[in-house]
């Protein structure tokens, strides 16, 4: 496989359930388009043809085994990369993705307690690229839980409760501390508007730095 320089910009949004990720992804998508950027908005799990089945498999509660669940998230990512993310980056577009590898680390290692070395090894084997920028929307598990209750819906992972979300939040904070060059922590407890402005500032920094990143398979 030959590699060519990737031309697009890969942005991910991360955080615990109820952090406001989808609302902020929507706002950021509109803001980028208003400023003339060509953006592919997508999400995990399930943001590609075929992903719907995998998404319902992991979210409907039928898979009790954490390792099986992990493999489904990885399979979903692999299909998502091949059919959506890589083609968009290769075409020079911005990819704005809700959840990506940091979710696997935070939920499957931090939340479910899977062996970090094993998960890291599997992810390396898969060869998933690093995002250029990851926005980590930080909020307390209690505040996020309140939002989820107001929203009135919870899938099987969301129903894992405050204890699970606290472990996931801790894993995200550790990730952000370990990768300050890539992960920006944005306090997500404020108003929608305030959080959106904070994210826009970070985007401007990355988009106008002229920084390009790794490689695209061809
Ligand atoms: P998401 O679609 O963000 O949930 P919603 O939009 O309903 O708030 O994500 C669904 C769940 O999947 C979420 O609880 C996090 C979990 N998840 C993992 O556990 N590992 C992963 O690798 C990914 C991508 C998601």
Provide keyphrases for this structure.
five-stranded parallel β-sheet; 218 residues; disordered C terminus; two-stranded antiparallel ribbon
Describe this structure in words.
The chain has a five-stranded parallel β-sheet, sandwiched between helices. The protein has eight helices and seven strands. Residues 212-218 have low confidence and may be disordered. By secondary structure, it is an alpha/beta fold. The chain starts with a strand and ends with a strand. α1 (21-34) crosses α8 (192-207) and α4 (101-111) runs antiparallel to α5 (116-126). Thymidine-5'-diphosphate is lined by residues 17, 22, 44-45, 59, 73, 98-99, 103-104, 107-108, 155, 157-158.
């Amino acid at each position: 496989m030959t590699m060519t320089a990737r031309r697009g910009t890969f942005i991910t949004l991360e955080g615990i359930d109820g952090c406001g990720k989808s609302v902020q992804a929507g706002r950021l998508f509109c803001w980028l388009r208003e400023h003339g950027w060509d953006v592919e908005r997508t999400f995990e799990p399930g943001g590609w043809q075929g992903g719907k089945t995998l998404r319902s498999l992991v979210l409907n509660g039928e898979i009790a085994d954490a390792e099986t669940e992990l493999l489904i998230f990885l399979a979903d990512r692999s299909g998502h990369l091949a059919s959506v993310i890589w083609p968009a980056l290769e075409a020079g577009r911005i990819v704005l993705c809700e959840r990506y590898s940091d979710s696997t680390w935070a939920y499957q290692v931090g939340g479910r307690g899977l062996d970090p070395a094993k998960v890291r090894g599997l992810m390396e084997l898969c060869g998933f690229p690093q995002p250029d920028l990851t926005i980590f929307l930080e909020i307390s598990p209690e505040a996020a839980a309140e939002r989820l209750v107001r929203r009135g819906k919870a899938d099987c992972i969301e129903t894992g409760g405050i204890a699970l979300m606290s472990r996931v939040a801790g894993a995200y904070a550790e990730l952000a501390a370990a990768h300050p060059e890539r992960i920006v922590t944005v306090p997500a407890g404020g108003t929608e508007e305030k959080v959106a402005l904070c994210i826009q500032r970070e985007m401007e920094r990355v988009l106008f730095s002229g920084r390009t990143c790794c490689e695209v398979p061809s």
